Amino acid sequence: MPISVILAQALLGLNVGVFYAMLSLGLAVIFGLLNIINFAHGAMYMLGAFVALIGYSYLEQWFGISAQIGFWGSLIVAPLVVGALGVLIERTMLKRLYDLDHIYGLLLTFGITLILQGLFSNYFNVAGTPYPATPDVLNGVMNLGFMYFPTYRIFAIVFSLVVCFVTWYVIEHTRLGSRLRAGVENPQLTQAFGINVPVMITLTFGFGAALAGLAGVLAAPIYSVSPLMGADLIIVVFAVVVIGGMGSIMGAILSGLALGLIEGLTKVIYPPAASTVIFFLMVLVLLFRPAGLFGKEK
Q1: In the prediction, which pLDDT does 47 show?
Q2: I want to staple 51 with a disulfide (CB 3.0 to 4.6 A). Which of 78, 190, 236, 242 is the partner?
Q3: Largest CA distance in the chain
Q4: Whole-angstrom Cα distance, residue 232 to residue 216?
């Protein structure tokens, strides 16, 4: 098999892997810092894509606003909208479940997912709606030597990697990250130092949701914007988080990237296994290292 084919497929796999990494990162932030299993994360990803689509194509039709929110604006507006929804969900619903078993939070966020999917299915094509607003500067292809690759996909890879590693650095190596971790490990003592732990928890959940919304905006020009796009991805993302280690920020990033590459290469080596290889690896990790590759054994 020519090395150019392998490199090309690896790059395509990396393009998928950055979306796995961003979504897994949002899940890991929420679970690692708040101990919440957010099944609505896929719906937040879908919502981010739809905010971008509505802002470009439906503002005048629905709201009478004779303006458009282009792609660059959507990179700011969509995460803010989705993050605000995350804050609303945490303040009005999830905060009532913190003292209960994890299953209650899982069931609540699963219900939110079904509501959002049903709501958007009433107004949009379930098969998907193309997003028409890729910036001119990101159109076309780049010659990488071994293949021509869409410029936009290269931008999505680089941008996603920057977001992932900046988030990891902030959480692990800054004073803000230290306060977040302290607020989770000992909220009473942290509160005694004058830090508003409930507000910090709310903003953290909103930030995790905003990451999913940002991933949705980046995915919109590549995939059709569909009410089910999050449902198709969330199970795989949960598998990625389990493999990396529940709550491990770096584990979520590296596992997402690695599993995207593995999935891409599997399509070349043995295509029928491409859709199941991640779950096969998850079973192996659970058998031999239940805490995940980067998780801490209790």
Answers
A1: 94
A2: 78
A3: 63
A4: 13
